[in-house]
Structures are given as C-alpha cells and as structure tokens.
Amino acid sequence: MAAVRDLKAGETAGPGDDDAVELAKRHLIQPWPYAGSVGSEARALIGKGDGIYITDNTGKRLIDGPAGMWCVNVGHRREELARVMYDQAMALSYNTPWYTMNAPSAELAKRIAGHAPGDLSHVFYTTGGSSAVETALRFMQFYNNVRGRPEKKLILSRGGAYHGSTYLSASLNGRPRDRDWMDGADDVVVKLSSPDPFRRPQGMSLAAFTDFLVDQFRDTVARVGADRIGAFVGEPVQASGGVVVPPDGYLKCIREICRDNDILYVSDEVVTGFGRLGHVFASGDVFGIDPDMITFAKGVTSGYFPLGGVIISERLLEELRRSNHPDAMFGHGLTYTSHPVGCAVALKNLDLLEESVLAHAQAVSPYFQAQLKTLEELPLVGEVRGVGLMGCVECVADRESKDPLQLDKNVGKRIDAHCHELGLLVRPLINMCVMSPPLIITREQIDDMVGILREGISRTMDDLRKEGVWRG
Predict the structure, then answer these.
(1) How far apart are CA 305 and CA 367, in angstroms?
(2) How confident is the model at residue 404 (pLDDT cuts 50, 70, 90)?
(3) Which of 22, 97, 7 is nearest to 56 (CA)?
(4) Cα–Cα distances in angstroms (integers) from residue 439 to residues 119, 189, 261, 425, 449, in the given order
(5) What is the reported pLDDT for 407?
(6) Range from 10-24, 44-58, 113-127, 265-279 carrying the lowest mean pLDDT
(7) 8 Å CB contact between 472 and 381
C-alpha cells in the first residue's frame, strides 16, 4: 500500500482531482440529488481540513461554516482522534455485537449516561442519526407491544422537523420539499405546527404563540387519543429546519403533557448534543427537560467515525424486565452496533470536550450570536436567530410580509457561491444560511466569518437588484 504523505501549504489534493470529478459524474450518486442530474453530478471537491478550515481542490482555504454537517465539533485534523482510531484498529478493529462485546463501548455508555438528564442510563449504539431515531421508534413499538398496548404506536412530530433519511425517521420530517416525491409511513405520524416564533401569525404575541402551540398539542392528544399515541419526537432546536429556537417554557409544557398521558418523549439531539450548545446534552442543561430517550450522533465523534445512539430511561427498561413476557425479544440491531473503533474515538472526543472545548464554546457563543445579529442591518435579512454555536440568517423579500423570496428560492445558494469565492463555506437552505462552525472557533475567526457572510449577502442583493428579482 502506498504511503500517505501530508500536503504542503498551498498544495492541492493531488493529481487525481480531475479524475475524481469525472469518476463522480460517471459512478457516484450524491445525497439528495434531483432527477435531472442524479448519477451525473460532481460537487465541490474538498482535499483537506485543519482546525476550522477546509481546502478545496483549487487550493482555496475556506472557513468550514457548517462544521461538516453540524459535526466536526473539535475541528479538523486532530491528531489525538486519528491516533486513537489507529491504535484501536490495531488492537481490535471489529467484533460482532450479537454474541460478543468490547470494552470501549461499555466505558463510553457509562460516560454518556453520566451527562444525560434524569434517569437516562443505558445506551444502544447505531451508525448515525437516522438509525438512532429509527431505533428509538422501534423501541417504543416493542415497549408497547410487551406492555400489551399494540394500538399505542402513533408518533407526534412537527412542521419544520428533520429526523433522518431512513423510512420511519424520514416520515417524521416536516421541512419544505423533503417529502414532495418521497413516500412515508403517514398512517402512523401526526404532524403539529412548527414552534417557529418568526413565522407565528401576524399580531400574535410570543406568549400567545406559546399558548397556541401547547393548546394544539394538548388538543391533538385529546382528539387522537392518548391510548393510541406512543411517542413525541422533537429536536430541542430545529436544526435543518432553520435553527428554530422554541419559545421559553414550551418544551417543558410539552414534556408534562407527555408524562401525564404516558407518551414517550424522544429528544432528538443529533445536532444539539456534544457541545453545540455548550453542553454534552441540551435537553436538561439548556431547556430543563428530562426526556424518556435522547438520540445522538454527529458530534459524538466530531465526524471522525460514523456513530450514533439512543439513551434510554432506566424506568422503561425496568418495566420491560417486570413484564409478563420475559422472552419477548427486541429484534433490532446493526452490524456496526457498538463498533470498537467508533466508541474509542468517541471516548477521546469526549475527553477533549470535557477538558476545554465545552468551556470555550460557552465563552464564545454570546459573541458569535451578537456578531451574527449585526447582519439584520442588511435589508435582505429578515431575521438572525440562534443559540450556542448554531445560527441562521433568514432572508426575506419583505420584512412586513416575511415573503421568503418567492421569486428566487435559491437565494441561499447564491450567497453560498459568493461566500465560497470569499473564503467561507455556508449551509444554504432555500432562503436561509445556516452557520454552525467548529466549537474551537475564536473571536477573530468569528469576525472573519461574519465579515465574509456580510459581503456575500451584499453581493447577492446587488445581483437580485440587477436581475429585477428584488428591489430592496
């Protein structure tokens, strides 16, 4: 096998870059493709990463604004994580979870349980966020079957939600376009309104909006029947829905309604977990709730290895152990459940978070939010919102009507293209730009990021004016 060499400063990813582009067009199916380009598309080719930066195949260095996909929390090129990955693979690269186990998975479960709220004390590992949500929902079904309640299986989800790409998890999604051409388990999912304060009815106060959301939830439970609803699944902050931060007190009210009606509360922390809001988990430390289950992925390994999981309440497990069906089997598992390499990487990643990264994230988050907020001075920007080190710049054609540029649904991509030229990778979502940089970002780097984003939006405004799409 050929030796791997480090790239020198300014050096591109190598002579195979052009080949990679052509091979992708001929053989690679990208995620979320359009029918008109499926299987024939090449996207921006990234050659290397270092800290908060990535370098594309032209040698351009970019701030990694989305931290990969909400996940490179401790930054790129951390030798500590690479070394642990190597050491664990040389000691034990894999073991079957069906009838053996490994030490890193047990140690990690203990560490994760120590950070979880309430009585969440047991971990089931998956390969990512989608499979984590799928696992939580399958566990809910199993739990109710064992308890003699086979009809208690409906799932409550919300508009603007994103919970994954597997069949059942994707059925919960509530973002525009996610389900336009895709099937789902619509017979078991009940959708509620998005808790987005920016899109609340005109003239409605924030307190009234909170009451509306809580009343709608309570009324839905009464209408559908608590005896038919198995779980509510909700992100503490709707991430891919545009960093929707719910109004104060809303999540606590929903938690109480779930508890009163024996509905399992599943907190989807695939994005908010492992430092994005300055804590390992946001459910308890930020929002003051103790769910029945928490799903996680992404930041658990800072994206260095595919790993996810579900933390489950001790109460639920004890009820299963006390049931009249001790031979009932939870027929669910994955080939890479409890993968030793992934769990070893997660342990070291958790060390890094606990040693300094969480404290740093807490320290710079207010500055990050304040600097992003200055972009509301631009007439194209309707709102800047966020919490911790996640933020969203939502662009609108008219601040009064909050029209999200109906004539130009690709404004986010336009801004991203300008920012790419200027040295920043953005996560464009229709008319929104989502930012979730590595947690190690400094104040000076935040200034650079926001400065580039400001210029990218300004150039986009000029483009839209010239094209007659927007007057401003």
Answers:
(1) 30
(2) confident
(3) 7
(4) 28, 35, 38, 16, 14
(5) 65
(6) 10-24
(7) no
Cα–Cα distances (Å) from 417 to 24, 271, 408, 432, in that order, read 21, 25, 15, 13
- pLDDT at site 471: 85
Q: Determine the Cα–Cα distance for residues 61 and 41; give it in Å rounded to an integer.
A: 23
Report the relative pairing of strands 189-192 and 229-234 from DSSP bridges. Answer: unpaired
Give the type of residue at 309: G
Mean pLDDT of 375-394: 97
**What is the per-residue burial (b if ≥16 Cβ within 10 Å, else e) of 245-274?**
bbbeebbebbbebbeeeebbbbbbbbbbbb
- Return the SS3 of 342: helix
Whole-number Å distance between alpha carbons of 70 and 115: 20
Strand duo 53-56 + 61-64: pairing: antiparallel
Amino acid at 273: G
DSSP assignment letter at 216: H
State the pLDDT at residue 5. 37
- pLDDT of residue 4 exceeding 70, the answer is no
Q: Is 78 exposed, middle or buried (0-12, 13-18, 19+ CB in 10 A)?
A: buried
- Residue 33 makes CB contacts below 8 A (sequence gap 6+) with 39, 41
pTM, full prediction = 0.94
Least confident of 100-109, 150-159, 402-411: 402-411
Q: At what angle do helices 250-260 and 206-224 cross, to 10 degrees?
A: 20
Helix (H, G, I), strand (E, B) or coil at 349: helix
Q: Name the token pair of 138.
A: 């399958």
The label of the residue with tokens 């730009």 reads 433
CA gap 98, 120 in Å, rounded: 23
Query: Cα(91)–Cα(378) distance, rounded to whole angstroms?
Result: 55
What strands lie across the sheet with 189-192, from one edge to the other? Answer: 120-126, 308-313, 293-296, 264-268, 229-234, 154-158, 189-192
* Residue for token pair 């070394």: 83
Residue type, 211: D
- 459, 420 contact by CB (below 8 A): no
Q: Pairing relation of β-strands 229-234 and 154-158?
A: parallel
**Joined tokens for residue 269:** 């922390």
Q: 241 and 194 in contact (C-beta within 8 Å)?
A: yes
CA distance 347 to 87: 13
Contacts of residue 381, defined as CB under 8 A and 6 or more positions apart, other chains included, come to 375, 393, 394, 395, 396, 457
